[in-house]
Amino acid sequence: MFVLRDEPCEAGKPPSERSLEESLLYGLIILDKPRGPTSHEASAFVRKLLGLSKTGHTGTLDADVSGVLPTLLEEACKASKFIAEKRKTYACIMRCTQPVDKLQVEDAFSHFHGKIWQKPPLASAVAKKLRVREIHSLKILEVEGKDVLFEAHVDAGTYIRNLVFDAGEVMGVKTEMLELRRTEAAGFTENQAITLQELSDLWWLYKEKEVNKLQQHVIPIEDALKLKKVVVADDALHSICTGADLAIPGILRFEEPIAEGEFVSLVTGKGELACIAHAVMSSDKIAESNKGIAFDVERVVHAF
After folding, report:
1. Which of 87, 175, 221, 289 is 20 to 30 Å from 169 at the Cα level?
2. How far apart are CA 184 and CA 187, in angstroms?
3. Looking at the domain assignment, is residue 183 inside a domain?
4. How do residues 225-272 score in pLDDT, each as one tens digit?
5. Is residue 257 reached through a cis peptide bond, with omega within 30 degrees of 0 on the bond before it?
6. 137 and 93 in one domain?
7. Are residues 232 and 292 in the same domain?
8. Active-site residue 155, yes or no?
9. Residues 266, 288: one domain?
10. Residue among 191, 184, 251, 218 nearest 16 (CA)
């Protein structure tokens, strides 16, 4: 980090030292959504189970799709649009109308590497306009008769169902998406996810005074954000949390490089997220200046 000022910080506490009650205010749970409920319904179940007033999620999954669904709790919902990463990973079963071999599928998939055009299906809730998405990799895991199991590493917003249909067109057979599962989203994998039943069990254990087992699955919002950090002086925290932008004298240190217009996390000296802001100055300009507004606060997450 580039250091502008070196002084002690007393505000807040390290995210790792939060109580469970505090963690549920400023954290998220990586849910393993089952097939059946919508993402909204799964998020609502978490809200009701934990007795919260608000939950949200990033990266909507269709009702018939299972897998990783980052579910934000209470104040962490304010950071939702800054958490979703551009890339996601899926495991899909593609069923063909006739048996295929691995070479056929590999040849078809070779047409879909890199940037492709897609139009959202009729069932989707977004505008039905052609748009560009990038396919980073398509890996065939298994071929058995008419069924192909493959892994897709793609841009967010890529429709795997459309990809399956288009691959069938290339192979000259009709295809359908038999099952789809998201295995990675927002930097979290299915190994970190818990089912709704597991969450319910952990909540029951919490009521029986087994706090730690539930807290292990509540991720601090600070760990989910992939933004560069700017450490704010204690005497500037109240101002930025009540409407003021962050001027250079209120900055202690920051990660670099920061480009003008880039979103950053404004954190306390102990690492707690206070606000999300975008840079009015680049890190180079901040380093060589001693006054002026450096960051325009976009969202207050944790007021101090």
Report:
1. 87
2. 7
3. no
4. 999 999 999 999 999 999 999 999 999 999 999 999 999 999 999 999
5. yes
6. yes
7. yes
8. no
9. yes
10. 218
Q: What is the pLDDT of residues 194-205, one digit of tens each?
A: 999 999 999 999
Q: How confident is the model at residue 210 (pLDDT cuts 50, 70, 90)?
A: confident
Tracing tokens 């979103």 back to the chain, one arrives at 263
User: HSE (CB half, 13 Å, CA atoms) of 142?
Assistant: 7
The answer to whether 215 touches 253, Cβ cutoff 8 Å, is no
Q: Which residues of 259-296 are buried (b: 16+ CB within 10 A; e: fewer)?
A: eeeebbbbbbbbbbbbbbbbbbbbbeebbeeeeeebbe
Q: Are residues 255 and 289 in the same domain?
A: yes
Q: Are residues 107 and 239 in the same domain?
A: no
Q: Spot the catalytic one: 32, 62, 234, 245.
A: 62
Which pairs count as long-range contacts for 60-65, CB under 8 Å and 24+ apart, including other chains? 61/33, 61/182, 62/38, 62/180, 63/35, 63/36, 63/37, 63/38, 64/35, 64/36, 64/180, 65/33, 65/35, 65/180, 65/181, 65/182
Q: Which domain holds residue 116?
A: 87-177
